[in-house]
Amino acid sequence: MTIIGRDMEILFGALGGLGLFLFGMKIMSDGLQKLSGPKLRRILETFTTNRVVAVITGTVITSIIQSSSATTVMTVGLVDAGLMTLKQAIGVVLGANIGTTVTAQIIAFHLSDYALPAIGIGMLLKLVGKTEKIRYWGDLLLGFGLVFYGLLVMKQGMEPLRHMPWVSRIFVNFSHTPILGVFVGTAITMLFQSSSVTVGLVMALASSGLINLAGACSLVLGDNIGTTITAEIAAIGTNVTAKRTARAHTMFNVVGVSIILTIFPYFVRFVDFVTPGDPNQVIGGTFPYMARHIANFHTLFNVTNNLIFLPLINVLVKIVTFLVPGETQERKFRLQSLEPNILGTVSVALEEAKKEVNYMAEEVYTMLDMVGKPLIENQNAEHALEKVMGKEDLVDDLQKEINTFLTELSRSSVTDKESKEIFSYIYVVSNLERIGDHCESLGKLCKKKKDYGLVFSTKGTSEISKIYMHTRDYLDIIVKALKHTPEDLMERVKPYEVRLNQMRIDMRIHHMERLKTATCNADAGLIFVDMLTSFEKIGDHAFNIAESLSGVK
In the chain, N or C: fewer CB atoms in 10 Å? Predict the structure, then answer.
């Protein structure tokens, strides 16, 4: 074989193995999140009562979903929504740092012999599985197999590099200059947005003999800094407390790495002392004990970091509050929570979208509430219309942003149930926007009535008041159902829908009778009829939402 042929073989082996490893990590993580994702957010909201429980919760959740990035993004979202305090969030993120080392411990097992059977069984479950749960287990097994097969291909591809002096000299620098390894590890993790990928790559390099234990450990330290970039990105556009959470994550990882660097040679020796096997022993052309040493370094570093910072959480809160100044307050514009960074975690993304849909529904209900006084009392029509039109602009923006977000989410790996939920929300949002349009129409009709000095008859005013109150009660049921949908929702709303339609029919008949007896002005009558139509349309869209929430549509 020529030199060029050998070089290409090494390159293809390394890149192909890395590709399989990355693909396997994604499939395995997706499978785990689909099996457990919907419950994770509720666990985070509930089991973070004190700092120790928060750390344990963060550790367990990250161990389950194999992604510290998903845990930190979820935590930032909860803080931004006001469902978690800064102190609780810091505890969760500390725990996530420990939880992510479980992946490294799993990878360190020599399970490449089982990789191909796992791929075969996993693919079989995906193809013939009759339930979603079985297919998710297929994802898990398929991803597991690809991870270990990818590692094997990477090791075999990189092994010849050990005999190239110029390559060895590059990697030797990491052990002689740990800070260089830290920078490179940080860059790799920022590039792949995954600490597990960096650790897997480092294990492949070390098991192939390209890098010694000290050099590998310096790259792992950098990996712990690089992983903080995900939380920092997720915090963009969020409230002050969420930004402080991300900054705290960055701070204790950077400070922790700095502390370990001051005792780096001794810490590496300690890891070697507590880990069985000689990392420099060669068996069959590879270094079989190196991976476990790297995994243990990763775990012991994060456990040590937790022991340092856990008692200092209150101090850390004060420091990040100083570093990220500003008043803790509710967001005035809720769209900011729909950040693209959470799209990778479907269950979290759906929860965030649900919050925005609920917010949009509340704004639409407020619009209907605003037209009440000018509608019934013929007062403040111009002021009410200005406020309603301002809300209408917000509702239109909400519809566009939520639909864009949900459409993007639908293109990711979602379950059948999640897909139905996504399109249900899109349908709900469309109907909410139309209700907002009709509220704006009511506001314009009120202003027109006031501008032209038109008045309804006493009976007409009474009827408009009744249909308005009925419609408002109807919409109130829908807004509450969006938060917690009752099983008997359709039974609750059907009488409202039937009654609203009948009220419109009866009131039109009464209106025609008043026109005949000249009790009602014809111009005012046109506005009266248009108002009845708007109320009926609001009811129709409310009924559409109820059907969607109940699974009828």
Answer: N
Q: How far is CA 245 from CA 16, 74, 99, 316, in A?
A: 37, 11, 18, 10
Structure tokens at 546: 């109820």
The pTM (predicted TM-score) of the whole model is 0.61
Task: Tell me which residue range forms the domain holding 124.
Answer: 3-322
Cα 289 to Cα 300: distance, rounded to the nearest angstrom: 17
First to last CA, the chain: 64
Question: Does residue 328 sit within a domain?
Answer: no
Is the same domain home to 355 and 242?
Answer: no
Task: Outline where 263-345 has alpha helix (H).
Answer: 264-274, 290-309, 313-323
DSSP 84: S
503, part of any domain: yes
Tokens of 498: 């039937």
- The answer to whether residue 73 is domain-embedded is yes
Q: How far apart are CA 441 and CA 371, in angstroms?
A: 10
Residue whose tokens read 């014809």: 522
Nearest partner of 442 among 532, 541, 543, 542, judged by Cα: 532
Residue-wise pLDDT for 189-231, tens only, equals 887 777 777 888 888 888 877 888 888 899 999 988 988 887 7
Angstrom CA distances, 516 to 505, 520, 525, stand at 17, 9, 12
Domain boundary among 322, 355, 385: 322
The DSSP-derived string for 401-463 is: HHHHHHHHHHTSS--HHHHHHHHHHHHHHHHHHHHHHHHHHHHHHHHHHHHTT----HHHHHH
pLDDT tens figures, 517-534: 878 778 888 888 999 999
For residues 171 and 201, the answer to whether their CB atoms sit within 8 Å is no
Q: Does 205 share its domain with 133?
A: yes
User: What CA dihedral angle connects 546, 549, 551 and 553, to 10 degrees?
Assistant: 60
The type of residue at 536 is E
Q: CA-to-CA distance for 398 and 404, rounded, in angstroms?
A: 10
3-state secondary structure (DSSP) of residue 286: strand
The CA dihedral of 539, 542, 543, 545, to the nearest 10 degrees, is 170
| 329 is a domain residue | no
Contact 351, 345 (CB under 8 A): no
For residues 311 and 349, state if they share a domain: no
